[in-house]
Amino acid sequence: MKQKVAHVIDRMGEASSRAQGLREVITSCRKLNLNDQHRIYLMKDPVANNGKGSVVGFLKVGEKNLFLHDHQGQTHEIMSLCVLDFYVYDNQQRRGYGLKLFNKMLEMERVLVQHLAVDSPSDKSMRFLKKHYDL
After folding, report:
1. Exposed end of the chain (fewer CB within 10 Å): N or C?
2. What is the pTM of this model?
3. From CA 86, how far away is CA 23, in angstroms rounded?
4. CATH homologous superfamily of domain 2-133?
């Protein structure tokens, strides 16, 4: 079972990186094992694949050290929950999976969307956040 999940995470990480035009994969099982501050949420369509189910997307979050600048130019260092990677397979988009996945993560992490940081958001991610959360 662990090997199947690892395989799914690795394939989805590769697909996410391709979709974002990245040179290297940012989400893999190996990288998750190296950082215990990162968590991954997987979304499964339970009726796909003749009732066996199929993973349709994932969302990776983790604590990140951020440097924020205030209006006076002062720098403040904070730890913040950050969206590190977010992907729904192209053929599964526009079915509400991304929104369900994002909302479940917000619930599980007990955080408001306005309090999240997003690491290097893609244009598609920015449109998603604007459409669903007016950010």
Report:
1. N
2. 0.87
3. 17
4. Gcn5-related N-acetyltransferase (GNAT) (3.40.630.30)
What residues contact 96, with CB distance under 8 A and at least 6 apart? none
| Residue 84 near residue 71, CB atoms below 8 Å | no
Report the pLDDT value the prediction gives residue 1, as an integer from 0 to 100.
Answer: 66
What 3 state SS string does the chain have?
Answer: CHHHHHHHHHHHHHHHHHHHCCCCCCCCHHHHHHCCCEEEEEEEECCCCCCCCEEEEEEEEEEEEEEEECCCCCEEEEEEEEEEEEEECHHHCCCCHHHHHHHHHHHHHCCCHHHCEECCCCHHHHHHHHHHHCC
